[in-house]
Amino acid sequence: MSKFPKAALFVGAGAGIAATAGLAITLADRFVTPMPATAPTIAFQIPGGGAPAAEVIPAATEVAEQAGLAEPADVPQAGAAASAPEAPVMKMAAAQGLTDSRLGLGRPALEAEIAAWDVDILPDGTGLPEGSGDVWTGEEVFAEQCAACHGDFAEGVGNWPTLAGGWDTLDRKDPVKTVGSYWPYLSTVWDYVHRSMPFGAAQTLSDDEVYAITAYILYSNDIVDEDFTLSHENFLEVEMPNAAGFIVDDRAEAEYAQWRAEPCMENCKDSVEITMRATVLDVTPDQAGAAEDPPAVEKATVEETEAVEEAEAVVPAALDAELVAAGERVFRKCKSCHQVGEGAKNRTGPALNGIVGHPAGAIDGFSYSKALKQAGEDGLIWTEEDLKAFLAKPRDYLQGTKMSFSGLRKEADQAAVVEYLKSFAEE
Amino acid sequence: MSDILKSSRRAFLRGSVAAAAGAVTAGAARAATPDPLITEVQDWASGLGQGVDEVPYGLPIEFESDVIRRNVEWLTADTISSINFTPIHALDGTITPQGCAFERHHSGAIELKKEDYRLMINGLVDRPLVFTYADLERFPRENHVYFCECAANTGMEWAGAQLNGAQFTHGMIHNMEYTGVPLRSLLNEAGLSGETAGKWVYVEGADASSNGRSIPLEKALDDVLVAFKANGEALRKEHGYPVRLVVPGWEGNMWIKWLRRIEVLDQPVESREETSKYTDTLADGTSRKWTWVMDAKSVITSPSPQMPITHGPGPLVVTGMAWTGHGRITRVDVSRDGGKSWETARLSQEGGNKALVRFYLDTDWDGGEMLLQARAMDETGYVQPTKSQLRDVRGENSIYHNNCIQTWHVKSNGVAENVEVS
């Protein structure tokens, strides 16, 4: 939201909270260990109503200075004081010193720091940067960056979230909750896509791309037409279909009122029948085993055979163990789509056992893009060099690949992950 | 893993249960021949054990290697945005060891060094501040035991009995002793002016999901803790090392891990985690939002599907745990006949504030079938509801906040199954 605190208070949102939060306060811990006398207990009483505009905490300023972060004069004077003249503030602080309960810890946050981290977008549009994007651009970016998991039309792939459709399902069994059928605020879409997607490469989209993707998601949900352009200016005009679909927690009235009662102890019902059994469904994971850790007894035999197989298969030229370890870390960027190692399966991307030296686009059972399949048929073999080049910028290396991954910028990361992949032979 | 291996594992499991059931009669019998474990000198009584320092940081002994967190693969698309379950069936007491406390990540467990850690407070404060980890250690700190329950705990059971094990039906919970600084101390340091009512804090993590949530300022100033230790040692990576938020009694999703920013606002952000998720759809299609408090709940952890009775009739310890986001558990009742009649269990210690309590029913089992249930009551007089009571109010489309009474069908061979009863 805003880069600077606002002085005016907006109280409207509070109605529903009072019940719950109030309750929590009355039930506050009775066994609190006494805190030191200097420690603040109930902070909101301390600054009082007409809080001093801003005090500069000497210790904090010192820290900032030492860290070479800013001249004291550059330190943003917070709060209502943003507009207050600098000098009197400094003087006031000097005169007052610290209030008893403040310890003078921490240092002032700099404007650039707040701008970097405070990226939330509020329902009323506060925080939206200037910019715009249209449905068509959004479709392109979505196809490149999102469709591998969310489907070309945002309809979701496998277990990945569905972003479109589901109208009129909320009051049925197994409602389909999507941006169109469920989300009450458009700000949430912008905020979430901007800070957290694509999965595994968050915070790589430009503001205009986020506008465009948001427009495309709206279009996929039939909320806007195909020639729609979304911008910071018309953002609040978009009506979300389920905006009125939410009520504030009403358990206090709907539930607690009935369920705070003396319970029955004897003859509480005439008969008891079993109406459903979990074992009929049989969806419980294997109790004793799961792949991670079978019980010791069996494990011995499993490990023996595997060890033998591995010893035969994995005799690659000596690997650089440190590089392999570094590569394992880099591989976290890939894990959202690829598995490697024992029992690796094809997921969003193909399983990568034995990929180094393997023909491209040829892992069994994976459905590749035309581009990668063709490259393989044309004789592309994943040598270390080719892999590094591919991983540096997948879509530049191979136009039309469906690997939605922006690339590994650092050569060290490319080398490390390739070394790591070399440590897994084909199963 | 191959199917053959899987099925052999199942057979192994079944075998062990059958063997246990077979032992039923022998259990109480007098020994006919001397027990070689007693009469013969065992290796461990003659040779030497492991020296100190062989395992600088100890792990459970190998015989306990099945007491681990487990994942239900079909629940999520991958393990990075996913959840696993605390092996509550095999634990006792109240404190959950960190190493087996459930994990829930939205973009994986990140590795963030203390030296790289920064916590920002901004928004409607007098002085936006940045704290380092070392700064946090200089504030007066407190210790509290609190439970942390994912709002989705027992969520798979809304429509009917699904998962056969307390770990899977109720394992999205842990209970730890936290060391940390009250959030109010940090807010005070930044300076709050004006009214508290109607204001919010928005809290977010340093990971890619950020998992931001809006919390009313009243709660933030009440008992929310900025924690850096759990059970006496540093938080584990998977629980937000080096610093996480502890929001006592409220749903686990609000306990932001890798806490990086706290913003004071005059309205909620309505982030993805408080709109698309963590809202509760009722039968008519409207959805409740801001359902933060976790209502009173209990579950019998043994006997349970993963903990069959292996000793035959006679003395039996029925045990389980109970908790409430409204304060303290005051009583737990147990039924063996599916809720027709109830007896009050023994609480092993006084219920702590927003902390797990352990209960025991020390009883005599006649070897007959049982429909075991537990029912918790808290200090507000709230009684844990049955599944049908919940469904009457909410319908069957909710995911979160299922705190219904759980039933285990214990058969005469001691095997237990997750069932639903009328």
Automatic annotation (TrEMBL), chain A:
<keyword id="KW-0408">Iron</keyword>
<keyword id="KW-0249">Electron transport</keyword>
<keyword id="KW-0813">Transport</keyword>
<dbReference type="GO" id="GO:0020037">
    <property type="term" value="F:heme binding"/>
</dbReference>
<feature type="domain" description="Cytochrome c">
    <location>
        <begin position="322"/>
        <end position="425"/>
    </location>
</feature>
<dbReference type="GO" id="GO:0009055">
    <property type="term" value="F:electron transfer activity"/>
</dbReference>
<dbReference type="InterPro" id="IPR036909">
    <property type="entry name" value="Cyt_c-like_dom_sf"/>
</dbReference>
<keyword id="KW-0479">Metal-binding</keyword>
<keyword id="KW-0349">Heme</keyword>
<protein>
    <submittedName>
        <fullName>Sulfur dehydrogenase subunit SoxD</fullName>
    </submittedName>
</protein>
<dbReference type="InterPro" id="IPR002327">
    <property type="entry name" value="Cyt_c_1A/1B"/>
</dbReference>
<dbReference type="InterPro" id="IPR009056">
    <property type="entry name" value="Cyt_c-like_dom"/>
</dbReference>
<feature type="domain" description="Cytochrome c">
    <location>
        <begin position="133"/>
        <end position="221"/>
    </location>
</feature>
<dbReference type="GO" id="GO:0046872">
    <property type="term" value="F:metal ion binding"/>
</dbReference>
<dbReference type="Pfam" id="PF00034">
    <property type="entry name" value="Cytochrom_C"/>
</dbReference>
From TrEMBL, chain B:
<dbReference type="GO" id="GO:0008482">
    <property type="term" value="F:sulfite oxidase activity"/>
</dbReference>
<dbReference type="InterPro" id="IPR005066">
    <property type="entry name" value="MoCF_OxRdtse_dimer"/>
</dbReference>
<dbReference type="Pfam" id="PF03404">
    <property type="entry name" value="Mo-co_dimer"/>
</dbReference>
<dbReference type="GO" id="GO:0030151">
    <property type="term" value="F:molybdenum ion binding"/>
</dbReference>
<dbReference type="InterPro" id="IPR008335">
    <property type="entry name" value="Mopterin_OxRdtase_euk"/>
</dbReference>
<feature type="domain" description="Oxidoreductase molybdopterin-binding">
    <location>
        <begin position="111"/>
        <end position="271"/>
    </location>
</feature>
<feature type="signal peptide">
    <location>
        <begin position="1"/>
        <end position="31"/>
    </location>
</feature>
<keyword id="KW-0500">Molybdenum</keyword>
<dbReference type="InterPro" id="IPR014756">
    <property type="entry name" value="Ig_E-set"/>
</dbReference>
<protein>
    <submittedName>
        <fullName>Sulfur dehydrogenase subunit SoxC</fullName>
    </submittedName>
</protein>
<keyword id="KW-0479">Metal-binding</keyword>
<feature type="domain" description="Moybdenum cofactor oxidoreductase dimerisation">
    <location>
        <begin position="288"/>
        <end position="406"/>
    </location>
</feature>
<dbReference type="InterPro" id="IPR036374">
    <property type="entry name" value="OxRdtase_Mopterin-bd_sf"/>
</dbReference>
<dbReference type="GO" id="GO:0043546">
    <property type="term" value="F:molybdopterin cofactor binding"/>
</dbReference>
<dbReference type="InterPro" id="IPR006311">
    <property type="entry name" value="TAT_signal"/>
</dbReference>
<keyword id="KW-0560">Oxidoreductase</keyword>
<dbReference type="InterPro" id="IPR000572">
    <property type="entry name" value="OxRdtase_Mopterin-bd_dom"/>
</dbReference>
<dbReference type="InterPro" id="IPR030835">
    <property type="entry name" value="Sulfite_DH_SoxC"/>
</dbReference>
<dbReference type="GO" id="GO:0006790">
    <property type="term" value="P:sulfur compound metabolic process"/>
</dbReference>
<dbReference type="GO" id="GO:0020037">
    <property type="term" value="F:heme binding"/>
</dbReference>
<dbReference type="Pfam" id="PF00174">
    <property type="entry name" value="Oxidored_molyb"/>
</dbReference>
<keyword id="KW-0732">Signal</keyword>
